[in-house]
Write a structure and sequence with these properties.
Chain lengths: ~325, ~240
């Protein structure tokens, strides 16, 4: 094994100085450090836990809306609403033929009666296989089409115009239109998550502010002495901000660990639902990365808040 | 050297009142010169501690002008105060040691605050503690030290940075006569190195132990200059008064 060359005394000294500047080894002694023993790490753990859960909910809802929107983006439903079964099926088949030849329609299929019945089963119960009995309560014939582009108003108008002649009872609707209220609700929930995160950040700032002021009050005598000995506000503030940063880091790590456990447990519950909609509400690796940033943001916020609170209080001293 | 540059401190008609009470210091005018040893005397309540607070920049006056190291100390921006304070050594009457720090760390504090590296401060701090007779108590916390020992730690902390001016409030009040003389010799040694020393005391015996010292006497907040030396200090080491 080759020997590691010894550092020159100057370099060693510079490294020690840099290390002390980063860790604040000499300054940390100015006030007694009661790290991890006060309420601050626990307060920050709770804040980070709640923030991470709110952020996860917001991200999952965003994913859900994005996936549903993508699934339905070019989707068009054609309903042929005619009480006479023969006319209904004839119009449906004609409409199917026209749609297959219409430029811009990527896929089109007639939804089988069994599938329509299955969709209606929660509301109408099991429908009889006997056509006569089934026609006692007629249901529209459904055509599921997918366009190359978005199913906007112009595209729908074009389809309506082409179908008007062969299927006068056809109603053409964008599938996304049915889910507009759902998207609006999802959007509202996402804004609620953002508002919750903002409120939690404000609460954490308030808690840090109180902790910094309490620490300043309890060490006022020491701070005055350090001032009298030529200590600068920045030196004193560094001590407090470092102490709070360490508390925030410990609390943040704990809060994130708990949040990850809660999110995974909730995710499994949603997976167990087996619903296609809920399945779209998963978190990707970018989302997990963003959640990992929550405690880091918490540490940064706590440190900046503590520093500004301490500096503001010190400026009131001579 | 002549003119204001030769002054270390100058007070012009300084008054100090706390809140709306009557003035505790009235029309204080004097000049302190580098390398001079001053005793500040007066009865209890005469205003000695208040005057010292003005000297070590812990208090702004209610009126008048104070210049320190050639700079107006009244209008001095707050961010410049640390630089000025590092040129001062202060021995507080109540010692004001930091309770959670050892004697060594208390004495090392001014050097650490000034950014001196650990390797460079160990020996001078150990030597200073040895000199004040506390070499074997360097790890002791203030609470475990006697009043006299705490006072010696406070003095060691005040002089460790070789200040331009040392301000001491009753520095020998809690030590035995032998240690008092020894501490006074330390102040004299510092004074010979160029440090201006201001010692507040009510012990008249102490005044005789430093023959070259000048006396500032406070009486109910007013400064008397019985020898005229504050206005016309004797020529020393090429220094002359500025007026």
């Amino acid at each position: 094994m080759s020997e590691v060359p010894a550092l020159s005394p100057t370099l060693a000294r510079r490294l020690r100085t840099a290390g002390a500047a980063i860790t604040g080894a000499s300054e940390t002694q100015l006030v007694p450090q009661a790290r991890l023993s006060g309420p601050m790490p626990w307060v920050i753990a709770i804040m980070v836990l709640l923030t991470a859960i709110a952020a996860a909910a917001g991200l999952a809802l965003g994913n859900l809306a994005a996936q549903a929107s993508a699934d339905l983006a070019g989707g068009v439903t054609v309903q042929v609403v005619n009480a006479a079964p023969g006319a209904r099926m004839r119009q449906a088949n004609d409409a199917l033929a026209v749609l297959r030849e219409t430029p811009g329609v990527a896929q089109v299929r007639l939804v089988p009666a069994a599938e329509v019945n299955a969709l209606l089963e929660p509301w109408l119960g099991t429908r009889s296989d006997d056509p006569a009995a089934a026609d006692a309560l007629p249901v529209p014939a459904l055509i599921d089409a997918r366009l190359d582009g978005p199913a906007n108003a112009a595209a729908l108008d074009r389809l309506r115009a082409r179908l008007a002649e062969v299927a006068p009872d056809a109603r053409v609707d964008a599938q996304a239109g049915w889910l507009e209220p759902v998207f609006a609700a999802l959007d509202a929930l996402r804004w609620l998550a953002v508002a919750l995160i903002a409120l939690l950040a404000l609460t954490m700032m308030a808690a840090v502010l109180l902790a910094a002021r309490t620490a300043l009050d309890s060490h006022r005598g020491t701070i005055e002495i350090v001032h009298m000995l030529g200590g600068t506000d920045a030196q004193i503030a560094r001590v407090f901000q470092r102490s709070i940063a360490i508390d925030a880091a410990a609390g943040g790590a704990l809060g994130l660990a708990l949040a990850v456990a809660v999110i995974i447990a909730l995710g499994r519950r949603f997976e167990a639902l087996g619903s296609g909609v809920a399945g779209g509400a998963g978190l990707g690796w970018v989302d997990w990365l963003l959640l990992g940033l929550v405690p880091l943001a918490g540490v940064a916020l706590a440190t900046i808040t503590a520093r500004s609170a301490v500096l503001r209080a010190l400026r009131r001293m001579l | 050297m002549t003119g204001p540059d030769a002054e270390i401190v100058r007070f012009d008609n300084v008054g100090l009142r706390y809140g709306t009470d009557k003035e505790v210091l009235t029309d204080i005018s004097f000049t302190l010169f580098p390398g001079t040893f001053y005793f500040l005397t007066g009865a209890s309540g005469a205003g000695k501690t208040s005057l010292l607070k003005l000297l070590y920049l812990a208090q702004r006056p209610s009126r008048g002008k104070i210049s320190m190291f050639g700079t107006d100390a009244i209008t001095l921006p707050r961010e410049h105060l640390p630089g000025f304070r590092r040129r001062l050594g202060v021995v507080f009457q109540d010692f004001r040691l930091i309770p959670h720090l050892s004697a060594f760390d208390n004495v090392a504090l001014p050097l650490r605050v000034a950014g001196v590296e650990e390797d460079d401060l160990r020996k001078p701090v150990a030597d200073m503690l040895e000199w004040v007779g506390l070499g074997d108590r360097s790890h002791a916390r203030p609470a475990t030290l006697s009043g006299g020992e705490q006072q010696r730690v406070a003095i060691a902390r005040a002089v460790i940075g070789r200040p331009d001016m040392l301000v001491a409030d009753e520095p020998t009040g809690n030590v035995d006569p032998d240690m008092a003389v020894k501490l006074l010799r330390l102040f004299e040694a510092l004074n010979r190195l160029g440090t201006t020393v201001v010692v507040a005391t009510h012990d008249v015996h102490l005044l005789r132990k430093v023959p070259d010292s000048l006396i500032m006497r406070l009486d109910r907040g007013r400064l008397s200059d019985p020898t005229g030396a504050l206005r016309y200090p004797p020529r020393r080491a090429g220094l002359v008064p500025s007026r």
